[in-house]
Amino acid sequence: MTQKSSGYAFPHSQSYEDERLQLLEKRLDPSTIRRVERLGLHAGARCLEIGAGHGSVARWLCGHVGERGRVTATDLETGFLELLSLPNLEVLRHDVRTDDFPEGSFDLIHARAVLMHLGERMETLRRMASWLAPGGWLLLEDPDFGMWLGDSDPIWAAHPRAIQEAFPTMSLTQGRAVLRQIQRLGLENIGADAELDVVQPGTPLGEFYRLSMIALAEPMVASGVLSPDETARLVARPAEPDFLSCGFAYIAAWGRRPNPAPRAAT
């Protein structure tokens, strides 16, 4: 997903992508870990981490499921993942839009900030759900731009629509959409929760947003939706002393594949 046509905005080739992903992990990993622990994943479980990025969740899952467990970490760019060396980890270059796994392969499937970049999301989700073993969990986490779009800072609020113009397949509402989508997959024990970013200058979270703006500056100018001066103002805004604004609402939803009904006695 390194080309604009792929719909992905953050190729790993960018010099600051390592730092940007580490800052994202620092923000999101505690929430992801809390959610996985709430699902009661057993030792020895088989896990699929889709769009594993820098690899922190895959690394944590390897420890959580123990030596009898197995974690498959996938991405279209696996350079960061290949730096991990864990006996129960498999790194796989895999396109969730087109590549499959056998039905019933995993006890947990997790995707974070992946669906927002894809087209045909329901088709992809149905395929993902089919990869669950009976009793297996699907955990989806995605950002939603709603509060950001409505922010009172006019410079900051211009960003979401500008980036969607540059990357038309990117969804500004996937976070809230997952609350409907999870209901259509034939799962049970469905639940959901959410957290909201409030972005302040001089914080790790503020730096994550600033680096994200830098990464997106060229595509926004190339799309014609913002001028170079407007883009420069947007990039600078998260570091200015009077900045205090909404960022993403991170929305998660989860559900479990039902176990087969017991056969009636004959």
Outline the secondary-structure elements.
Elements: H1 17-39, E1 46-50, H2 56-65, E2 70-75, E3 89-93, E4 106-112, H3 121-130, E5 132-144, H4 146-149, H5 154-157, H6 159-166, H7 174-181, E6 188-199, H8 204-223, H9 228-236, E7 245-256
CATH architecture: 3-Layer(aba) Sandwich
Reading the helices and strands in chain order gives: HEHEEEHEHHHHEHHE
Q: Can you identify the CATH class?
A: Alpha Beta
Number of helices: 9
Query: Which percent band covers the strand fraction?
Result: 15-25%
Give the integer mean of the pLDDT values.
92
Widest sheet: strand order?
Answer: 3-2-1-4-5-7-6
Question: How many distinct beta strands?
Answer: 7
Distance between the termini: 54 Å
Radius of gyration over C-alpha positions, nearest whole angstrom = 19 Å
Low-confidence stretches: 1-7
Describe the protein.
The structure is a single chain. It contains nine helices and seven strands; from the N terminus they run αβαβββαβααααβααβ. With 266 residues, the chain is of the alpha/beta class. The chain has a single domain, classed as Vaccinia Virus protein VP39 (Rossmann fold), CATH 3.40.50. The protein has a seven-stranded mixed beta sheet with strand order 3-2-1-4-5-7-6, with helices on both faces. The termini are far apart.
